[in-house]
Amino acid sequence: MTTKYEKIPSSLFVKNRKKFAEKLLPKSLAIFNSNDIYPISADSTMPFQQHRDIFYLSGVDQEESILVIFPDAYLEENREILFVRETNDHIAVWEGEKLSKHQAYELSGIKTVYWLSDFEKVFKNLMYEAENVYLNKNEHYRNSVETELREDRFIKKVQADFPMHNYKRSNPILQRLRSIKEPEELALIQNACNITEKGIRRLLAFIKPGVWEYEIEAELIHEFVKNRSRGFAYTPIIASGNNSNVLHYIANNQQTKDGDLILLDVGAEYANYASDLTRTIPVNGKFTARQKEIYNAVLKCKIEAEDRLVAGNNWYRFHKEMGEVYTSELLQLGLIDKADVQNEDPKWPAYKKYMMHGTSHHMGLDTHDYGILTDDFVENMVFTNEPGFYIPAEGFGVRIEDDYVIQSSGKPFNLMANIPITVEEIEDVMNS
């Protein structure tokens, strides 16, 4: 089985498993399942996307794969085991070759690889040796999935089959491990950001009054796929005119008009790693005086945020501090006044009328990546920085967003520093 992206060194996944194994209690076994292939209707399915946890720990990007980690297993060959789907004659003709055992080893660094058909027998013997079992469940703070997942079905089965074991949670461990990126991961995210840059520069030369939002989307997907991305890291927001005031506008079906701004919240995926960018640009290549005023105020907020995305701060303090920045800028713009601030509801401050969402979130294998919000920022965490002001009464909103790596000291490193961002840079590129 091949992928679009270049092979990732197996040493990354060896490191990730070692970090995870060190967090387990003695005599513990942990198990991870791939995502399902989700149906649409009739015989149609969604394109497969691997569960990010098993990918993080193995590098295997194939459906139905199972990973078992058992550091205290008596036999060394049972301490890491990968189960993969075997290619038969039917699969070879209709789907193409799946991973061989050797290929699975090369990807993951796991020496013990079995066919999926061997799982029940091997797993039963391992369970009789283990005392604690770590099961994986989505515990992300934004999770609201109603679908029963392959992991959910497995959890029900294993607890029914082996009710006397001591069951533990893998996800809190992964929340912390995945939030701090290895150098190899930072390189993959940087590549995703670089592909996004190519897409944005293509758009700056393409956009003009009269083009449709879906045409802009098409230009992006062309550039992304051309550069070995699977496509968008998330559903793209291409919002012209008053659509830019809808935070998660995804219809992308309107025609752009002369004098409008267009908000582009788009990012390429690369090797399952995300990028997340927003730019707001003038359709005709020239900001009006008012558009420029609002844009520069938002950009100032983004620059102020860089001083707060630093080691030792945390997500809650960061957002409280940014609330004060937004209040100051909105007062200067005349969008709120002192009375609004004095009479504000502490649970919904005055600035929230024009800035309703958070300024930052973890990013990595997921666009809204794992991370414990109460933990302090530390070196090699990756965060977005995305202030915005939304003014329906004036027919436009502005959001600006880049991705940053926390440093051991000082300001974070901007992974998107080469993408045009100032009014002058955007206008120069659009009119060159």
Tell me briefly what this model is.
Helices cover about 35% and strands about 15% of the residues.
Give the overall shape.
globular
What is the H/E string? HEEEHEEHHEHEHEHHHEEEHHHEEEEEH
The CATH superfamily title of the largest domain: Creatinase/methionine aminopeptidase superfamily
Helical residue percent? Answer: 25-40%
Approximate strand percentage: 15-25%
Oligomer description: single chain
CATH topology-level fold name of the largest domain? Creatine Amidinohydrolase
Q: Taking all residues together, what is the mean pLDDT?
A: 97
The CATH class of the largest domain: Alpha Beta
Total helices: the number is: 13
**Largest sheet: number of strands, sense, barrel closure:** 6 strands, mixed
As laid out across the biggest beta sheet, the strand order is 6-5-4-1-7-8
Structural class of the secondary structure composition?
alpha+beta
